[in-house]
Specification:
2 copies of one chain form a homodimer. Chain A contains 8 helices and 12 strands. By secondary structure, chain A is α/β, with parallel strands linked by helices. In chain A, the strands form 3 sheets. The first copy, chain A, has a 5-stranded parallel β-sheet, with helices on both faces. In chain A, strands 6-7-8-9 form a 4-stranded antiparallel β-sheet, with helices on one face. In chain A, strands 10-12-11 form a 3-stranded antiparallel β-sheet. Chain A has 2 domains: 121 residues, Response regulator (Rossmann fold, 3-Layer(aba) Sandwich), CATH 3.40.50.2300; 97 residues, Winged helix-like DNA-binding domain superfamily/Winged helix DNA-binding domain (Arc Repressor Mutant, subunit A, Orthogonal Bundle), CATH 1.10.10.10. The radius of gyration of chain A is 22 Å and the shape is elongated. The first copy, chain A, is 41% helix and 24% strand. In chain A, helix 1 links the parallel strand 1 and strand 2. The termini of chain A are far apart. At the A-B interface, strand 10 and helix 7 of A face helix 4 and helix 5 of B. Chain B binds a DNA duplex (30 and 30 nucleotides) through helix 6 and helix 8.
Chain lengths: 230, 230
DNA sequence: TATCAATATCATAACATATTCACAATCCAA
DNA sequence: TTGGATTGTGAATATGTTATGATATTGATA
């Protein structure tokens, strides 16, 4: 079993192979890339769990790759920087790097940081078990990806569930369709906002007449909200 | 109604017309320009909400236009680039382009990207956190898009609500009809200012006799105000 | 009080938005 | 790869909102 996919981006192939060797020994699945734009492509295609990213790169440089990736994802990024190279930590933090390591590094250090970052991420995701909202006769649990209505589990596709969860997490607040597309579907989603309507309809079918404490309301000319009485 | 003004800059008039056709069908207002320096002039004069910018241009090339515009504005720019043309993505990002599309493009893709970029920008216009004004027996909450009168929620169309919110946010201040049209309806709205009267009337129906602490007053010969005692 | 212009009111036309449906595209697991 | 489930799309319909013009009413002014 793999502990996770790691994308290693460095133009120095020796370093790449070295990292691959050690990371695989630790049980990670390693993908290599030697240039910036290719790295972005591979990131999109392969969806790694962590990225080790050199700054000096052909194509796009590390900062640019970082910026590109951050447009779409919060995947942890560890920057690699050569000793002597002026490393702009401020820039790094602004662009959303999670950590950085100065070359030459020893493999133990890299492994340790990789583990540390993944552990940190893991804590944010997993033990935050309480990704759940509860109202009268309604339970939306995102840990189990499960919708319970009046005690019964209702089979619900992921997008619908995510939409409901999003709305129900902020009861009474109106969301425009565009907001929902950004916040539930994701930034680079190119789609028609009528999509939202259809998902709302499908949710309503499942939730119809269950409780008078809450409902999925249309706010005409604006968007939708999960309305809760008092 | 227009969803926004888009400046299309391309020396190929067929492409321009094609883009115009599709963008206008989507409800955008389209301005065309076939050369770089003219594009800069038109940008300054017309203040578009988004720019579709070809790189190969007579006059100034796309990069130069991009740089010129970025000196003064953060308007979103989508670069158009011919396949095979070496597109310098790095340069593009540095100069501040927001996205780019490779020709020949599929019109759906362009539309999608335009929407996506505008959607990102638009987050500012979305219903904001806790926008609410409260007076005796009156609550206007723009986060919920809700009007509460004497504890009861009164179903109110968006324009009416926005008008009331606008007036009530600045109690006792008089607004002319033209000001209200600009500030609530939006700049490019060309309408009869009698429209305001009708909306005020409808609001009054909803608010009649609720409280003597406040009221929607006509200022004869001038406009309207939300008057509050003391 | 007569007059004129500003405002209020109303009905309805024009418009914008939402719902729904059927089906197409896509994704995923066997 | 195939079939079933999910997700997205476009069109028809239904619904609600907003604009407009005609007319009545009101307020300012002489």
């Amino acid at each position: 079993m793999s502990l996770g996919k790691i994308l290693v981006v460095d133009d120095d192939k020796n370093i790449c192979e070295l990292l691959r060797l050690y990371l695989e020994k630790e049980g990670y699945n390693v993908i290599l890339s030697h240039d910036g734009s290719e790295a972005v492509v591979k990131f999109n295609a392969l969806n790694p769990d962590l990225i080790l990213l050199d700054i000096m790169l052909p194509g796009l440089d590390g900062w640019q790759v970082c910026r590109e990736i951050r447009k779409k994802s919060n995947v942890p990024i560890i920057m690699l920087t050569a000793k002597g190279e002026t490393f702009d930590k401020v820039l790094g933090l602004e662009l959303g790097a999670d950590d950085y390591v100065v070359k030459p590094f020893d493999t133990k250090e890299i492994i340790a940081r990789v583990k540390a970052v993944l552990r940190r991420i893991d804590q944010n995701n997993a033990p935050a078990e309480n990704k759940e909202v509860v109202y009268d006769k309604l339970v939306v649990n995102m840990t189990r990806y499960e919708l319970k209505v009046d005690g019964k589990v209702i089979d619900t596709p992921p997008k619908e569930l995510e939409l409901l969860y999003h709305l129900a997490s902020n009861p009474n607040r109106v969301y425009t369709r565009d907001q929902l597309l950004d916040e539930v579907w994701g930034f680079e989603y190119y789609g028609d906002s009528r999509t939202i309507d259809v998902h709302v309809k499908r949710l309503r079918e499942k939730l119809e007449g269950v409780s008078d404490q809450w409902s999925l309301k249309t706010v005409w000319g604006v968007g939708y909200k999960f309305e809760v009485n008092e």
